[in-house]
Amino acid sequence: MRIANHHVPQITAFLLCVEFLEAFASTYLGAMLRFLDSNYHYSPHREFFFISGIAFAVATAFSMSAFGLYRISYRKGIRNTLLRLIPSFALSFSLITLLFYLLPDLYIGRGILGLVVLIAASMIIGTRALIFKFSEVGLLKSRIAFLGCGKLANECRTLALNNTSYHHYELVGFIPTEGEECLVPVNELLTNNSDLTTVLKQHNVHEIVVSVMNRRGVQFPLQELLDCKLHGIKVIESTAFIEREACQIRVESLHPGWLIFGEGFNQSFLRKFGKQTFDLIISALIFVITSPIMLLTSIFIYLEDRGPIFFRQERVGKNNSTYMVLKFRSMRSDAEKNGVPQWACNNDPRVTRVGNIIRKLRIDELPQIINVLYGDMSFVGPRPERPYFVDQLCTEVPFYNLRHSIKPGITGMAQVRYAYGASVEDSLQKLQYDLYYVKNNSLFLDALILIDTVQVVLFGKGR
């Protein structure tokens, strides 16, 4: 299903709704059990109790999202869920306790809160165990076939088989087309003696992905695909399949016509106004919360080598305009003493001891909040690059300049989905995530990326 242009698995949306309701219901159950054997009558209908329940449900959903419990692999089983559920509830308990301290009217009592956490955890574990059981017996599988047997079909095959979400695929096979080199396992080819609809119906296929690389000079079965759609079989192009499953837009499949006439790429006034408001509120809030951390970081950076605390560097922003980005210095002062820009990399010897820590925790990025408040950046967007590398990448990577149609961000889709990159090939992979964000950007997607950023900081993933 699509929410604000972003593809969300139906089972994920289902789990989020059910577990939100379970967390909310647990507040009432906890209050009832707490005073079950007491002469004191506790009324869960008192003023603010409903709001307290909503607050606990929101804190629980946020904490579980931050620990990746809505992106967990069904193949890792219930054990992995338990390992992440325990710290996620610890975070939820801390958040709700802080809320009670700030807003005493919402306080529901320590005894009740303890029961609420136990009840909510039990209900959520039971729900997850049931979902895992459905996954094991194949009730959540979707039977999928591919039209084509070449390079693109094989790439889609890999993506479908490596999909580890709750709603995974059962690969039925491939319908070969004339004049295309077969690059998929021969034993997965489907005989095409009758019409396409009959073949797919015989194998109980739910969805067919059109993955033919070159349709010119090929007898393309348009009418048969239309018949498939009319018979209830979902028909989807490989570009849309990859976008849905990998949250990427593949550069090799792009052409100007698709960019012009396709959906997305919303740059309306309402979208810009909403994003700017979101940036200002989130940036101001995080600046206040992290001020003590930034003060301590400044002290440690100065004490290590008595060098500058901050460094300013030219970056390319929206519409190819340049600005000076502000970050905590994490490298030696002479990191580029020869004057030639260099790609940063993992285990970079130029990184200082303090710099290594603040880079892993993303603290070095915090001063960019000032760039956001000035209007040079957004909180969420493509990672800004230096003009030297932008010139190189615009020459070597098709459509690279599209990422400059919006403001760069402190965090973004590529930063939370892809490991540290230090080459043209890595930039190409990150660009495909950036293009997905540029096409489908919304406040909903911004919120999801912020939650994923928390997960990156907690588990040290991405960059």
UniProtKB/TrEMBL annotation:
It is found in: Membrane. The lineage of its organism: Bacteria, Pseudomonadati, Pseudomonadota, Betaproteobacteria, Burkholderiales. PANTHER family: COLANIC BIOSYNTHESIS UDP-GLUCOSE LIPID CARRIER TRANSFERASE, UNDECAPRENYL-PHOSPHATE N-ACETYLGALACTOSAMINYL 1-PHOSPHATE TRANSFERASE-RELATED. Its main location: membrane. Keywords: Membrane, Transferase, Transmembrane, Transmembrane helix. One of its GO terms (molecular function) is phosphotransferase activity, for other substituted phosphate groups. This is Sugar transferase, PEP-CTERM system associated. Residues 275-458 form the Bacterial sugar transferase domain. The chain crosses the membrane at residues 12-36, 48-70, 82-102, 108-131, 280-303. It is a multi-pass membrane protein. InterPro entries: Bact_transf (IPR003362), EPS_sugar_tfrase (IPR017475), Sugar_tfrase_EpsB_2 (IPR017464). GO terms for cellular component: membrane. Signal peptide: none annotated. Belongs to the bacterial sugar transferase family. It comes from the Bacteria.
